């Protein structure tokens, strides 16, 4: 009974395509990084319905060493949304309608008033029906909004790409990634590269490693952390003598199987620290099998941003990882 209904979205998109041929352009979408605009009635925002939306989309991002939500969720009414073109160009939107004339369903609109843009229209006859609908589809909705954030970030990075890094990766690893200007190759061997960005307020880094594939056990959480620590101990020194990066073991990293661009992969999120010093921060690790070349590839991104927000900077690194493209 409760399922995603795309028929209206398909019809709308056909009309949109025809209209765009006349307008020559479509607005670029707006909204802050990791922001979802909730359009509904105020009484719903302050009800258990609104609480469930906020509890899921504004839950604490687990791999950060400080409290930050995975998304922020400002609210406006349907009337304000309909009367204000600026809000209609937000990148991520949820339109929530609950009344007894509705059937429980989700409609999806893509690039409605801007690009890239996704609007989920959630309709239900009552609160109970909404909860059933939302529980079935919340992970799908979140995954789409995560994808939208990566698309936005990478579009901006592509316009200001450090093309020399792409060339070096193609030559060394036979795959490419898109890094924005400011990043540079700090270290490189035949099977390893350390690419980093240093500013006065934060540091972003990405470690790339490849090795022969022998067994799927190479993708167990224990082996991934062992391999990560071996690389950081060897290649990522701290500012003081004998200090080096290592995985923080007081908080167990979170590992899960994912489909990374069509490849079997393990995603690991956790915290790093400096052995012999006092620095630390979050990291994201994607380790996957490149079956064509019978090798394991590890892409590991870390962030150092003391006493500053970290979510958006970490999302940038995740977006860079998703630009991976095999030759």
Short description:
Helix content is 34%, strand content 30%. It has helices spanning 7-23, 42-45, 48-57, 78-83, 85-88, 127-158, 163-173, 221-235, 311-321; strands at residues 4-5, 37-39, 75-76, 92-98, 105-110, 118-124, 175-176, 184-188, 192-198, 203-212, 244-247, 254-260, 263-275, 280-290, 295-304, 325-326.
Write the layout of secondary structure elements.
Layout: E1 4-5, H1 7-23, E2 37-39, H2 42-45, H3 48-57, E3 75-76, H4 78-83, H5 85-88, E4 92-98, E5 105-110, E6 118-124, H6 127-158, H7 163-173, E7 175-176, E8 184-188, E9 192-198, E10 203-212, H8 221-235, E11 244-247, E12 254-260, E13 263-275, E14 280-290, E15 295-304, H9 311-321, E16 325-326
Parallel strand pairs: 1-5, 2-3, 2-4, 4-6
Antiparallel strand pairs: 5-6, 7-16, 8-9, 9-10, 10-15, 11-13, 12-13, 13-14, 14-15
Describe the structure in your own words.
The chain is an alpha+beta fold and 327 residues long. The protein has two domains: 4-157, no CATH class; 160-326, Protein Transport Mog1p, Chain A. It contains nine helices and 16 strands. The strands form three sheets. Strands 8, 9, 10, 11, 12, 13, 14 and 15 form an eight-stranded antiparallel β-sheet that branches. Strands 1-5-6-4-2-3 form a six-stranded mixed β-sheet.
Structural features:
single chain, 327 residues, alpha+beta, Protein Transport Mog1p, Chain A, 2 domains, eight-stranded antiparallel beta sheet, six-stranded mixed beta sheet, 9 helices, 30% strand, elongated
